[in-house]
Design brief:
430 residues, alpha+beta, five-stranded antiparallel sheet, 29% helix, binds acetyl coenzyme *A, binds zinc ion
């Protein structure tokens, strides 16, 4: 059974034929179609399963209306545009309360923000507004919830993006954005990128190489000295980091970029940013392995390098909270491996959290929470004792072999770096 809706009050619903046909008759569906944003309903995810999802936006696609949906309980990475035939209208639609402002899209306070400096909510609205003034009726916050680019091309890789990033409006919404892998400038066409590549002279991130081991290098880049490059890095990384809206003030941060070298240059694999001065002893603000290099052990190398810097500074550090889901998995794996390694090689009856912290630069809080979640903290005669089970040790041995065979180990002695002391005036950013 189909229903032809009266679209005179809702010109947005008009298909090219001037009417919309949906496979169900109900006032509820009409209400939904009139104002779909923020409604929740069951949507076909992947091939067959139906999941509860929230509609975040709608647009006219080539084949009719399309809806951008977020699956409840799933990471935003899986948000997607779907056509109306993926909705299950036989189940109840949840409508948003009408009396309050439902655009609860304000992004979480936190990680990417600090690394690329955060906008206040008001200025973030302003910025996104400026970046995308396409004259649609979409709410600004709604825009930030919707992925604006589908794909980027960098070097040899074509990569699907995960989240919204405020690239300027003339570049956003193109099919593929072409990014120069060395200077990170972006172009709407391959032709323009090629023309740029003929002129571009950069073959590595624009900073000092402070570490080199077997093809892997780290470059240190000061946000104050390389504003454009660092802003472009932040725009790029925002595509894969679901945190606050980014700001262009990169001055308060240092960027540690990991590259792999071949005859064409030093190719960016990932990076982390670090506040020049962190009142909370954070040693990483924001960390990213570019998707084409993920799950190959590079994230572990980045994390290892952040602790190598903390060791050189002589103080423990921790990543800025909250961590993303993938950030948590990677840090948890790193902490487990590092603490178990220390205990296997060095522990005595008197080993304390403080001692492990001194040697690994992992904070005592992170050590305690890791050991607790491993089930390795026991109480004996009123005292906490560390007790590693056979399974934990076997897992560590397997991981160690994997890391060695992939050569994913940071060699502290190869770090050619002294902690930088910034003067008060250098730390005055605004
Ligand atoms: N699923 C399950 N476990 C995972 C996953 C995953 N998708 N990704 C990492 N892990 C765990 C595994 O234990 C893995 O070891 P294994 O592969 O031997 O099993 C371990 O973490 C380390 O994996 P790596 O390959 O070293 O990590 P990767 O290079 O993929 O980088 C990172 C990890 C940086 C978190 C990456 O996923 C990323 O860039 N994500 C997007 C941005 C992000 O979320 N960053 C963290 C935000 S929090 C912050 O910035 C402080
Ligand atoms: Zn370039």
């Amino acid at each position: 059974m189909t229903l032809t809706l009266d679209t005179k009050d809702n010109p947005d619903l008009l298909s090219t034929a001037g009417e919309v046909s949906v496979p169900i008759v109900s006032a509820e569906v009409q209400r939904f179609l009139a104002e779909p944003v923020n409604c929740k309903l069951f949507v076909q995810k992947a091939t067959s399963e139906y999941r509860l999802a929230e509609v975040l936006s709608s647009r006219k696609g080539e084949t009719g209306l399309e809806y951008y949906v977020h699956y409840t309980g799933f990471n935003k990475r899986l948000d997607e545009w779907v056509s109306i035939n993926r909705f299950d209208f036989s189940r109840k639609i949840e409508f948003p309360p009408t009396t309050i402002n439902n655009h609860s899209a304000t992004s979480k306070k936190g990680v990417i923000g600090e690394s690329i400096s955060l906008l206040s909510e008001a200025s973030s609205k302003r910025e996104i507004g400026q970046l995308r003034s396409s004259g649609t009726s979409h709410n600004i916050q709604e825009i930030a919830r919707v992925k604006n680019l589908n794909k980027i091309q960098m070097g040899q890789h074509e990569i699907e993006t995960w989240y919204f990033s405020p690239y300027p409006s003339e570049y956003a919404y193109c099919d593929i954005l072409y990014i120069c892998e060395f200077c990170l400038l972006y172009y709407p066409s391959l032709k323009q990128l090629r023309q740029h590549r003929n002129r571009c002279e950069l073959h590595h991130p624009p900073g000092n190489e402070i570490y080199r081991n077997e093809g892997i290098s780290f470059f240190e880049i000061d946000g104050r000295k390389q504003k454009v490059w660092c802003r472009n890095l932040c725009l790029l990384s925002k595509l894969f980091l679901d945190h606050k809206t980014l700001h262009y003030d990169v001055d308060p941060f240092l960027f540690y970029c990991m590259t792999e070298r071949d005859e064409r240059g030093n190719h960016l694999i990932g990076y982390f940013s670090k506040e020049k001065e962190s009142s909370e002893s954070y040693n990483v603000a924001c960390i990213l392995t570019l998707p084409q290099y993920q799950r190959l052990g590079y994230g572990r190398l980045l994390i290892g390098f952040s602790y190598a810097l903390s060791k050189a500074e002589g103080r423990a550090g921790s990543p800025e909270k909250p961590l993303s889901d993938l950030g948590f998995l990677s840090y948890h794996a790193y902490w487990t491996e590092t603490i178990v390694e220390y205990l296997l090689l060095n522990s005595t009856e008197d080993t304390t959290f403080e001692e492990i912290s001194r040697e690994t630069a992992i904070t005592t809080d992170d050590i305690e929470s890791t050991l607790t979640s491993m089930g390795a903290l026991k109480y004996y005669r009123g005292q906490k004792i560390i007790c590693l089970g056979d399974k934990v040790v076997e897992q560590w041995e397997r991981n160690y072999e994997k890391r060695k065979s992939r050569n994913r180990i940071i060699v502290q002695g190869k770090l050619n770096w002294k902690p930088i002391r910034f003067t008060t005036s250098q730390l005055r950013f605004r």
